[in-house]
Design brief:
The chain is an all-beta fold and about 325 residues long. Helix content is about 0%, strand content about 45%.
Length: about 325
């Protein structure tokens, strides 16, 4: 980023590397706080950055066209309200609602053929978009810029309440999904108002599908989800004789939710060759934690119920 107040002496203010390839063009929001950058390299996404503090530029979100994601955005053009008009490779023209730049939602997509949609001019007073496809010619569009319907919230472990990273949240029958961050937060949504089904999944947890979630244009709907860990079965494979284990994969600790009816003399964490790494004796509490697991190398381990000898493979990441 350069200060070009003096055209004869541009001054470099800051540099922020982000994706493979090279930045083809960029557009700054009207308030000067958000920068949208296209990368002209196959399968690379459009990026939004918070540039309100040049000493702390932050990546907010990434976007790829929904139907041909390998065709990267060639140019990004910004309209009032932070709507982005995106002529793209593989014959695509899309419109994206970036009014929440950390949760960009595609609200329109059309195919102009198969060649590069070189550019699009959305700046006529009429609002008409003029788009040029390299082989197919000139296309003219009338666009209704309507805000997306956003869905945001957190995903946590049902037993411990710990935020779950790397959970996937899908708005079904749309191209939209997100992966939770380390704090368990996700951001996604839909192009139009309506009732949607949402699937939430994560390795080591039971997948959930929630139906009839109402989303409205221009509104952020907050929905938090809790996931139930997959269970360890003892000699009797029913819920009265099982324990919930979380998080899976684990990193610094494992937590075991022990039902009242489950007989146990304690728990052991073992390597796959049978070496006992941690032993936790039976406790009065129904919630048991095996702590200080950070030093263990990443890999697969066995968590064993000492009473029954039954074990479950658990993975450390």
């Amino acid at each position: 980023m350069y200060d070009v107040t003096d055209k004869s002496n541009p001054i470099l203010l800051t540099r922020f590397p982000h994706q493979p390839g090279y930045s083809h063009n960029s557009e700054l929001s009207a308030d000067g706080k958000i920068l949208f950058v296209s990368v002209e390299t196959s399968n690379q996404p459009l990026a939004s950055f918070d540039v309100s503090n040049l000493d702390d530029i932050r990546l907010l979100a990434l976007y790829k066209p929904s139907k041909k994601p390998s065709g990267e955005v060639h140019n990004v053009r910004i309209m009032p309200g932070n709507f982005l008009v995106c002529p793209s490779y593989r014959g695509q023209l899309t419109v994206v609602d970036a009014s929440r730049p950390g949760n960009m939602i595609e609200i329109a997509w059309d195919s102009l053929g198969n060649s590069l949609v070189w550019d699009a001019d959305p700046y006529l007073p009429s609002g008409i978009i003029l788009a040029t496809a390299k082989s197919e010619g000139l296309y003219i569009y009338q666009t209704n810029y309507q805000h997306a319907a956003w869905l945001e919230g957190m995903v946590t472990d049902q037993f411990s309440g710990v935020p779950l990273a790397n959970a996937r949240v899908f708005v079904l029958n749309t191209p939209n999904a997100d992966t939770t961050l380390a704090n368990g937060e996700y951001q996604t949504g839909a192009a139009q108002s309506g009732n949607y089904a949402v699937r939430v999944e994560r390795e080591g947890y039971e997948t959930q599908v929630h139906t009839n979630i109402a989303l409205s244009s221009g509104i952020v709907t907050t929905k938090n989800f809790t996931l139930k860990p997959l269970i360890i079965n003892t000699e009797q494979p029913n819920l009265e004789h099982s324990a919930g284990v979380s998080p899976i994969p684990f990193s610094s600790y494992l937590q075991i939710a022990v039902p009242d009816h489950l007989p146990t003399s304690g728990w052991q964490l073992c390597s796959l060759n049978g070496e006992i790494l941690r032993t936790i004796p039976s406790q009065s509490s129904n919630l048991i934690r095996i702590e200080q697991l950070d030093p263990l190398p990443n890999g697969t381990y066995l968590l064993q119920n000492i009473h029954s000898g039954t074990s479950l493979k658990v993975v450390k990441h």
